[in-house]
Amino acid sequence: MAERLLPRRTLLRLAASTGLGLPALSLLGGCRAEAAELLAVRGELPAGWARRLPSPWRLRQLDDPAAVRAALLPPAAGSAASARPRTDGSPPALIQLGDGWATSLPRPSLQPIGTPALLARLAPLAAPVQRLFAPEGSPALAWPWSLSPWVLVLRDRPDLAARAADGWDLLLDPSLAGRVVLPSSPRVTIALVEGDLTRLRRLRAHALASDDRDGLRLLLSGPAQAAVVPRQRVVPLLRSDPRLQVVLPAEGGPLTWNLLLRPTGDGPAPPIDWLAEILEPPLLPRLLAAGWVPPLPRPLLQQALKGFPAAMAAILLPPAVVQERWRDLPPLPAQERLALQHLWDEAAPPPG
């Protein structure tokens, strides 16, 4: 006759009376470690790296950063309760977001990323974003695993590509009127012209759309001939589409970061070995070829890029003088936000 299984309550009493405790009970019950979730924006985590995520971690992807933010915070975002992780189910143990979205999270909703040895391997330019732009001495809340300057992508315009020294002013060329896709963020667009009202007004008058997430589609199969997008999104296309030319302006420009963050809670520590894989071969060259560039010291990136075509290497690692001109976009005080909004409104094209 088959053996009868003891009810779980009986097992608990037995464990307590015999001194076995919960660890032994877990062995008796054959329990497995609870899965830890990494929540990411679809397409914003390299597939080759995601596949190596160790057990018991699992990846869940959502369609946009707003959905990731909503999955972390309570529904009443902006209230005092929004500083706490969600309680309707287990919160993710790690989340992936860009720096703009990450800095919009209430700081109490995050805990230190807990990877000091890994952070120490990064170049100094990553230090401010590790703290989410808080003052020096603040805890590191983010693992900034990839950085991407905004670049100008041209389609079938070798005449403009030959004038790359003109930088962002190429966007103001009369032939591009109505054929430019600008970033979705007004702040990024303002940064392209360094806040100059006259140039901003002309730039906005040239815009076909302001949609960096869909900008490449408009460029590849629509009426656009120029688009401003993060570098990572265009690099995978360069080998397959000879119509495209990338201009990385020598005067610098705005910079965006891809981050991993650890929500407040009792979830497991980040998988350190997995995080470290992107900093060295064999994974590092594969990520570079796909446009993902970790903020490693320059000599290490130069070594990793050996064997890459010179033109591609120059896009992934431009001269140091250009890199030094890239600009982070940290959160702004309310007064500065109002000033930028006023500038943006003043530069709006006339109706009709």
Summarize the structure in words.
- The longest helix is centred in the C-terminal third of the chain and has 13 residues, at 334-346.
- The protein is globular, with a radius of gyration of 24 Å.
- Strands 1, 2, 3, 4, 5, 6, 7, 8, 9, 10 and 11 form an eleven-stranded mixed sheet that branches.
- Residues 1-32 and 77-88 have low confidence and may be disordered.
- It has two domains: 36-76 and 89-147 and 255-327, Periplasmic binding protein-like II (D-Maltodextrin-Binding Protein, domain 2), CATH 3.40.190.10; 150-254 and 331-346, D-Maltodextrin-Binding Protein, domain 2 (3-Layer(aba) Sandwich), CATH 3.40.190.10.
- Helix 1 (8-18) crosses helix 2 (21-29).
- It is of the alpha/beta class.
- It is built from 18 helices and eleven strands.
- It has helices spanning 8-18, 21-29, 47-50, 65-72, 99-102, 116-119, 127-130, 158-161, 186-192, 197-206, 215-221, 231-234, 272-276, 283-289, 298-304, 310-316, 320-323, 334-346, and strands spanning 36-41, 57-62, 94-98, 110-111, 142-155, 180-182, 207-210, 226-230, 244-247, 253-263, 326-327.
How would you summarize this macromolecular structure in one to three sentences?
By secondary structure, this protein is α/β, with parallel strands linked by helices.
Would you identify the CATH H-level superfamily of the largest domain?
Answer: Periplasmic binding protein-like II
Topology-level CATH name of the largest domain: D-Maltodextrin-Binding Protein, domain 2
- Helix content percent band: 25-40%
Total domains, how many?
Answer: 2
Question: What would CATH call the class of the largest domain?
Answer: Alpha Beta
Structural class: alpha/beta
Order of helices and strands: HHEHEHEHEHHEHEHHEHEHEEHHHHHEH
Count of β-strands:
11
| Rg of Cα set | 24 Å
What is the overall silhouette?
globular
